[in-house]
Amino acid sequence: MRTLCCLAALLCLAALPARAVDCRLALALAMDVSSSVNATEDALQRRGLARALLSPDVERAFFISPQPVALAVYEWSGRYNQEILLDWTLIETPATLYDVAAILAASKRSTTKFPTALGYALGYGATLFQSAPRCLYNTLDVSGDGKNNEGFGPEEAYNAFDFRDIVVNGLAINAAEFEAETDLLPYYQNEVLHGPGAFLEVANGFEDFERAMQRKLERELSPPTLGALISPKDTRTR
Predict the structure, then answer these.
(1) What is the pLDDT of residue 62?
(2) Which architecture characterizes domain 22-236 according to CATH?
(3) 3-state secondary structure of 156
(4) What residue ranges do the domains of the chain occupy?
(5) What is the pLDDT of residues 27-40, one digit of tens each?
(6) CA–CA distance, 65 with 61 (Å, rounded to integer)
(7) What is the number of alpha carbons within 13 Å of residue 94 lying toward its C-beta?
(8) How many CB atoms lie within 10 A of CB 25?
(9) From CA 73, how far away is CA 97, in angstroms rounded?
Protein backbone atom coordinates (compact mmCIF):
# COMPACT_ATOMS: atom_id res chain seq x y z
CA MET A 1 0.00 0.00 0.00
CA ARG A 2 2.84 2.39 0.90
CA THR A 3 4.51 1.78 -2.48
CA LEU A 4 1.26 2.45 -4.33
CA CYS A 5 0.71 5.70 -2.41
CA CYS A 6 4.23 6.91 -3.19
CA LEU A 7 3.81 6.03 -6.86
CA ALA A 8 0.45 7.83 -7.07
CA ALA A 9 1.91 10.97 -5.50
CA LEU A 10 4.90 10.99 -7.85
CA LEU A 11 2.66 10.51 -10.88
CA CYS A 12 0.56 13.49 -9.79
CA LEU A 13 3.68 15.62 -9.49
CA ALA A 14 4.94 14.50 -12.88
CA ALA A 15 1.60 15.39 -14.47
CA LEU A 16 1.78 19.03 -13.41
CA PRO A 17 2.11 21.50 -16.29
CA ALA A 18 5.57 22.94 -16.84
CA ARG A 19 6.34 26.10 -14.84
CA ALA A 20 3.19 25.65 -12.72
CA VAL A 21 5.29 25.69 -9.56
CA ASP A 22 8.92 26.20 -8.61
CA CYS A 23 9.01 23.33 -6.11
CA ARG A 24 6.91 20.66 -4.49
CA LEU A 25 7.36 21.85 -0.90
CA ALA A 26 8.37 25.07 0.85
CA LEU A 27 9.64 24.00 4.29
CA ALA A 28 10.58 26.52 6.99
CA LEU A 29 12.29 25.29 10.15
CA ALA A 30 11.97 27.46 13.29
CA MET A 31 14.47 26.79 16.10
CA ASP A 32 14.02 27.89 19.73
CA VAL A 33 16.87 30.01 21.20
CA SER A 34 14.96 31.43 24.17
CA SER A 35 16.66 31.89 27.54
CA SER A 36 15.62 28.39 28.69
CA VAL A 37 18.00 26.93 26.08
CA ASN A 38 21.59 26.92 27.34
CA ALA A 39 24.73 26.94 25.19
CA THR A 40 25.16 23.16 25.25
CA GLU A 41 21.54 22.59 24.27
CA ASP A 42 21.78 25.14 21.48
CA ALA A 43 24.86 23.38 20.10
CA LEU A 44 22.97 20.07 20.17
CA GLN A 45 20.18 21.65 18.13
CA ARG A 46 22.46 23.10 15.45
CA ARG A 47 24.61 20.01 15.14
CA GLY A 48 21.53 17.79 15.29
CA LEU A 49 19.77 19.69 12.52
CA ALA A 50 22.83 19.60 10.26
CA ARG A 51 23.31 15.87 10.80
CA ALA A 52 19.62 15.14 10.30
CA LEU A 53 19.67 16.91 6.94
CA LEU A 54 22.60 14.75 5.82
CA SER A 55 21.21 11.43 7.02
CA PRO A 56 20.76 8.98 4.11
CA ASP A 57 16.99 8.66 4.57
CA VAL A 58 16.44 12.43 4.68
CA GLU A 59 18.71 13.02 1.69
CA ARG A 60 16.79 10.36 -0.21
CA ALA A 61 13.50 12.04 0.72
CA PHE A 62 14.73 15.41 -0.57
CA PHE A 63 15.31 13.95 -4.01
CA ILE A 64 12.39 11.52 -4.25
CA SER A 65 10.81 13.74 -6.92
CA PRO A 66 12.14 15.84 -9.82
CA GLN A 67 10.50 18.87 -8.19
CA PRO A 68 12.89 20.29 -5.56
CA VAL A 69 12.20 21.41 -2.00
CA ALA A 70 12.67 25.04 -0.92
CA LEU A 71 14.19 25.26 2.56
CA ALA A 72 14.47 28.17 5.01
CA VAL A 73 15.61 28.17 8.65
CA TYR A 74 15.25 30.80 11.36
CA GLU A 75 15.74 31.01 15.10
CA TRP A 76 13.30 32.65 17.49
CA SER A 77 12.93 33.73 21.11
CA GLY A 78 11.41 37.06 22.24
CA ARG A 79 8.76 39.17 20.55
CA TYR A 80 11.19 40.94 18.24
CA ASN A 81 13.99 38.39 18.24
CA GLN A 82 13.86 36.28 15.12
CA GLU A 83 16.91 35.73 12.94
CA ILE A 84 17.23 34.11 9.52
CA LEU A 85 19.87 31.38 9.46
CA LEU A 86 19.08 30.27 5.91
CA ASP A 87 16.92 32.22 3.48
CA TRP A 88 14.82 30.33 0.95
CA THR A 89 17.09 27.93 -0.94
CA LEU A 90 16.06 25.42 -3.58
CA ILE A 91 17.63 22.07 -2.70
CA GLU A 92 18.21 20.85 -6.24
CA THR A 93 21.40 18.80 -5.78
CA PRO A 94 23.13 16.88 -2.98
CA ALA A 95 25.90 19.48 -3.11
CA THR A 96 23.40 22.21 -2.20
CA LEU A 97 22.10 20.12 0.70
CA TYR A 98 25.65 19.62 2.01
CA ASP A 99 26.34 23.35 1.75
CA VAL A 100 23.15 24.16 3.66
CA ALA A 101 24.03 21.68 6.42
CA ALA A 102 27.48 23.26 6.74
CA ILE A 103 25.97 26.75 7.00
CA LEU A 104 23.60 25.65 9.75
CA ALA A 105 26.26 23.73 11.67
CA ALA A 106 28.51 26.82 11.66
CA SER A 107 25.73 29.29 12.50
CA LYS A 108 26.00 31.39 15.65
CA ARG A 109 23.21 32.08 18.09
CA SER A 110 21.87 35.62 17.81
CA THR A 111 20.67 36.07 21.40
CA THR A 112 20.51 34.29 24.76
CA LYS A 113 18.39 36.43 27.07
CA PHE A 114 14.84 36.64 25.74
CA PRO A 115 11.71 34.64 26.70
CA THR A 116 9.48 32.36 24.63
CA ALA A 117 7.28 34.41 22.29
CA LEU A 118 5.82 31.50 20.37
CA GLY A 119 2.97 33.51 18.83
CA TYR A 120 5.46 35.98 17.39
CA ALA A 121 7.58 33.10 16.08
CA LEU A 122 4.54 31.75 14.23
CA GLY A 123 3.66 35.17 12.86
CA TYR A 124 7.21 35.62 11.62
CA GLY A 125 7.01 32.26 9.89
CA ALA A 126 3.76 33.14 8.14
CA THR A 127 5.34 36.37 6.88
CA LEU A 128 8.41 34.46 5.69
CA PHE A 129 6.24 32.38 3.37
CA GLN A 130 5.27 35.53 1.51
CA SER A 131 8.76 35.50 -0.05
CA ALA A 132 8.92 31.73 -0.60
CA PRO A 133 9.06 30.20 -4.08
CA ARG A 134 5.74 28.99 -5.48
CA CYS A 135 5.35 25.44 -4.20
CA LEU A 136 2.64 22.83 -4.11
CA TYR A 137 2.70 22.70 -0.31
CA ASN A 138 3.88 24.94 2.51
CA THR A 139 5.01 23.60 5.89
CA LEU A 140 6.23 25.46 8.95
CA ASP A 141 8.17 23.25 11.36
CA VAL A 142 8.41 24.76 14.88
CA SER A 143 10.66 23.26 17.56
CA GLY A 144 10.78 24.42 21.16
CA ASP A 145 11.20 23.42 24.80
CA GLY A 146 8.55 25.64 26.39
CA LYS A 147 5.15 27.26 26.16
CA ASN A 148 4.50 30.85 25.14
CA ASN A 149 5.33 33.25 27.98
CA GLU A 150 5.56 36.63 26.25
CA GLY A 151 3.15 38.50 24.00
CA PHE A 152 0.27 36.91 22.11
CA GLY A 153 0.07 33.15 21.82
CA PRO A 154 -0.48 30.69 18.96
CA GLU A 155 -4.25 31.15 18.78
CA GLU A 156 -3.89 34.90 18.30
CA ALA A 157 -1.18 34.32 15.69
CA TYR A 158 -3.45 32.04 13.68
CA ASN A 159 -6.19 34.66 13.80
CA ALA A 160 -3.93 37.57 12.85
CA PHE A 161 -1.73 36.05 10.11
CA ASP A 162 -2.51 34.23 6.88
CA PHE A 163 -2.06 30.51 7.48
CA ARG A 164 -4.63 29.34 4.96
CA ASP A 165 -2.09 27.35 2.90
CA ILE A 166 0.44 26.59 5.64
CA VAL A 167 0.56 23.42 7.73
CA VAL A 168 2.34 23.85 11.07
CA ASN A 169 4.05 20.82 12.59
CA GLY A 170 5.76 20.77 15.96
CA LEU A 171 8.88 19.28 17.53
CA ALA A 172 8.47 19.46 21.29
CA ILE A 173 11.74 19.09 23.19
CA ASN A 174 10.57 17.35 26.34
CA ALA A 175 13.37 18.47 28.66
CA ALA A 176 11.30 20.18 31.34
CA GLU A 177 13.23 21.36 34.40
CA PHE A 178 10.30 23.35 35.75
CA GLU A 179 6.90 22.09 36.83
CA ALA A 180 5.22 24.78 34.69
CA GLU A 181 6.48 23.04 31.52
CA THR A 182 5.41 19.48 32.34
CA ASP A 183 2.36 19.83 30.08
CA LEU A 184 4.41 20.87 27.05
CA LEU A 185 3.25 18.00 24.85
CA PRO A 186 -0.50 18.64 25.15
CA TYR A 187 0.22 22.35 24.71
CA TYR A 188 1.94 21.75 21.38
CA GLN A 189 -0.69 19.22 20.42
CA ASN A 190 -3.65 21.52 21.14
CA GLU A 191 -2.25 25.01 20.56
CA VAL A 192 0.63 24.83 18.05
CA LEU A 193 -0.31 22.23 15.45
CA HIS A 194 -2.30 23.72 12.59
CA GLY A 195 -3.72 22.55 9.29
CA PRO A 196 -4.66 19.22 7.70
CA GLY A 197 -2.31 16.39 8.59
CA ALA A 198 -0.33 18.45 11.13
CA PHE A 199 1.67 16.27 13.51
CA LEU A 200 3.89 16.46 16.57
CA GLU A 201 7.30 14.85 16.96
CA VAL A 202 8.83 14.57 20.43
CA ALA A 203 12.51 14.75 21.40
CA ASN A 204 13.30 13.29 24.81
CA GLY A 205 15.74 16.03 25.74
CA PHE A 206 18.13 17.98 23.53
CA GLU A 207 20.37 14.90 23.21
CA ASP A 208 17.50 13.32 21.27
CA PHE A 209 16.97 16.32 18.98
CA GLU A 210 18.87 14.87 16.01
CA ARG A 211 16.85 11.64 15.99
CA ALA A 212 13.54 13.47 16.34
CA MET A 213 14.41 16.01 13.64
CA GLN A 214 15.50 13.29 11.24
CA ARG A 215 12.26 11.41 11.74
CA LYS A 216 10.18 14.54 11.30
CA LEU A 217 12.01 15.61 8.14
CA GLU A 218 11.54 12.17 6.60
CA ARG A 219 7.80 12.46 7.16
CA GLU A 220 7.51 16.06 5.98
CA LEU A 221 9.46 15.35 2.80
CA SER A 222 7.47 12.23 1.94
CA PRO A 223 4.81 12.36 -0.79
CA PRO A 224 1.66 14.02 0.62
CA THR A 225 -0.50 11.01 -0.12
CA LEU A 226 1.15 9.28 2.83
CA GLY A 227 0.12 12.07 5.17
CA ALA A 228 -3.50 11.54 4.24
CA LEU A 229 -3.29 8.06 5.76
CA ILE A 230 -2.41 9.47 9.18
CA SER A 231 -4.88 11.21 11.46
CA PRO A 232 -4.45 15.00 11.85
CA LYS A 233 -2.65 16.21 14.97
CA ASP A 234 -0.81 12.92 15.34
CA THR A 235 1.86 12.63 18.04
CA ARG A 236 5.05 10.67 17.38
CA THR A 237 7.51 9.66 20.09
CA ARG A 238 10.40 7.27 20.36
Answers:
(1) 97
(2) 3-Layer(aba) Sandwich (3.40)
(3) helix
(4) 22-236
(5) 999 999 999 999 99
(6) 8
(7) 9
(8) 22
(9) 13
